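Schema walk-through. Below, the input block comes first and the output block second. Nothing else is stored per chain. Lengths vary across the set, and this one has 178 residues.
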Amino acid sequence: MGSTGEQLGVMKLSDALRKAQSLGLDLVEVAPTANPPVCKIVDFGKFRYDISKQEKDKKTSGTKLKEIKFRVNIDDHDYLTKIRHGEGFLDKGNKVRVQLQFRGREMAHQEFGMQLMEKVRDDLAGMSQVEMEPKIAGRNVTMTLSPLPAARRKRRFSVPANDVAEEPPDNGSPPEEK
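--- output ---
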């Protein structure tokens, strides 16, 4: 294959090397197992750079761990906001650590905390599976959720932007009669 991508066909090694030298480029073997072996006429430094860039892109597709913190007496609206954030994290393929913090005398009623964690687990069941069951450690309860495969995820709480209907602005005058 030539430097501009055109096929040069089958040729002898000496002819291919001569052609590459005349262009000031290198002859690089791309598919050594093919019969005959496939070679490219390219700048070897750029070729290596492109390969390393492709390998780096493959590596960076790992999952991250995001964290959502709750308190026992969380308001419904705040709870829904945090659940929506959790759904967003899971939808992007990240794991989510759910942490519940107890303060003061809340430690006397840890069952309320466990009920809240079960509610979070149930609400995010369409997007995730439990990787680590809720565990009490000191004044915290933690649980880790990992995302389901993309085909099985079902969002329950996010409001799509196009479903929100905007109301017409009120100009202060009464509605017109027809």
